Amino acid sequence: MNVTRSAHRQPTRTDRLLAVLGGILSGYVALAVADLLAGRIRQEAGPVTAVGDVVVDRTPAAVEQWAIRTFGASDKTVLLLGIVLILGLIAAGLGLLALRHRVAGAAGVLAFGVVGALAAASRPDSDSALDALPSLVGALAGALLLYVLMGRLLASEDSDRSDPSEVPGAAARADRRSFLVVAAATGLAATAGAALGRAAGPSAGDSATASRRALRLPRPASAAPAVPRGAQLDVPGISRFLTPNKDFYRVDTALLVPKVDADSWRLRIHGSGVRRELSLSLPELMAREVVERDITLACVSNEVGGPYIGNARWLGVRLADLLREAGVRPPSEGGPADQLVARSVDGMTIGTPVEDVMDGRDALLAFGMNGEPLPLDHGFPVRMIVPGLYGYVSACKWIESIELTTFDAYDAYWVPRGWAAQAPVKTQSRIDTPRSLGRPDAGTVMIAGVAWAQGRGIARVEVRVDDGPWQEARLGAEDSRDTWRQWVHPWQAEPGRHTLTVRATDGTGATQPEERTDTAPDGAAGWHSVEVTVG
After folding, report:
1. Which of 83, 320, 427, 518 is most open to solvent, judged by the fewest CB atoms within 10 Å of its CB?
2. pLDDT for res 156
3. pLDDT tens per residue across span 469-487
4. Residue 472: CB partners within 8 Å, gap ≥ 6?
5. By C-alpha distance, which of 39, 34, 67 is closest to 51?
6. Hey, how many other C-beta atoms are within 10 angstroms of the C-beta on 85?
7. Which of 38-47, 346-355, 414-423, 429-438 bottoms out in mean pLDDT, i.e. has the lowest?
8. Is the pLDDT of residue 321 over 90?
9. Neighbour count for residue 510 (Cβ, 10 Å)
């Protein structure tokens, strides 16, 4: 008597494990193919980066600040790894779904491709429908692979086997071997293809790196004076007066550092009150009067005592000179625009008061940093620098346009996310040494650090041990009022646990308030303290 069986085996535990593997492999292939295509079209069009940018844009300010506090400069890496992990879990689930319903599992992979495509096409810097292609083609490849793998895993059996000598389970083992062969071959091919794709042919990053390497910075018509003797105090553990480029803080929303070719870069200045619209190449910009200045930059995300501040020697062109060349007048002179909106190549917008840029301070369009062209991750080829303002309202990196408008007419990127439209830097000070929870020996201990109040300068720094009296610290030499200032105080440390506190007074006579405030909406305030145990 013939026995009719189902066309497919019932999945076992091993089948389910292999289905999870197949789902993850299909997701990997989808990302590999998408990454390969994005490298030929635009790296920012890759699905992980595109989805990551959407996540960044929609993350509440409080969560962003938590990520910066917790992960520091690695926050973007953590986000990307998190996205990949979530995609891996979803892919595993789609593999299990495909084990029961091959078409539904494959359709699920395609659905995530559509999500990636929409994210890529909706990026502010997207100007072509081709940005959607990597996610769609990658998802199609992943969906086809998942469909084929599940077919191999549960291959049809003969509905009527007449050979009684057939070993039970032999067909299942053959199905699994076939699955593993296809999976291994596909995985290796995807990996090799991605590697060859990255190695073959120049990319936008290659041309940007080459243009930076070839750039020769002009000599400044107005050079920064030498850093005064005594500006850098000889105290172990204190910050370097000029922060090396490799150590300079980086806080921005770019998951991938924009790679801008200096040879094709242009800057447009336009908008309300602009009588002569400007469009400048980098050589044309550098042909203007070039100045060199030491300026300290601070991030609004910097908590009291935090690391997101640095001091560098910048080379560039005065922004006010370019604005006047374009016929712009500040509001104090009757100009119609009170906000300057700088746009980055990645779509970031930063709003800056026109009055602050044109009030005589050294607001720059900078192309040099500490004697070399701007590093790629610090805005190459050109960025804005405005002394006295937090970076989120002044320091646009990878800048490509400047539009004159009003604060009433336009909210820059950070304003709808809960940050103030205008944010001058607050007077702050920080203890660099001894470190919090340090264990210095009894005797003379040098308490030292930095203080800053760009545009106002630092007039005095005071240190307090526990609840004792405030004692004035010795200040390092002042470079300019736009740079931080080092300070040091010798302390006769006695054994036990102690709290060290610092406060600064700026050039206007205003002293830091004691009360701690959060970074949002316009920068942290309060005294910095560290606890140490003296041995």
Report:
1. 518
2. 45
3. 999 999 999 999 999 999 9
4. 460, 461, 462, 489
5. 34
6. 10
7. 38-47
8. yes
9. 14
Report the alpha-carbon distance of residue 456 to residue 428 in Å, rounded. 12
Judge whether 450 and 475 are in contact, CB under 8 Å.
no
Strand partners, 225: none
What is the rounded distance in angstroms from the CA atom of residue 163 to the CA atom of residue 187? 36
Residue listed under structure tokens 């303290």? 529
Residue 525 sits at the vertex; the CA angle it makes with 406 and 58, to the nearest 5 degrees, is 55
Contacts of 295 (CB under 8 A, 6+ apart): 311, 312, 314, 362, 364, 385, 387, 454, 482, 483
Query: Could you give the CA distance from residue 40 to residue 31 in angstroms, rounded to a whole number?
Result: 14
C-alpha atoms less than 13 angstroms from C-alpha of 440 in its C-beta half-sphere: 24
* Residue of 439, 533, 433, 428 lying closest to 489 (CA atoms): 433
What value does the mean pLDDT of the chain take? 91
CA nearest to 209, candidates 344, 42, 375: 375
* CB 231 within 8 Å of CB 477: yes
Residues constituting the chain: 535
Span 321-345, mean pLDDT?
98
Q: Looking at the predicted structure, is the pLDDT value of residue 204 above 70?
A: no
Q: Are strands 458-465 and 428-433 parallel, antiparallel or unpaired?
A: unpaired
Amino acid at position 301, single letter: S
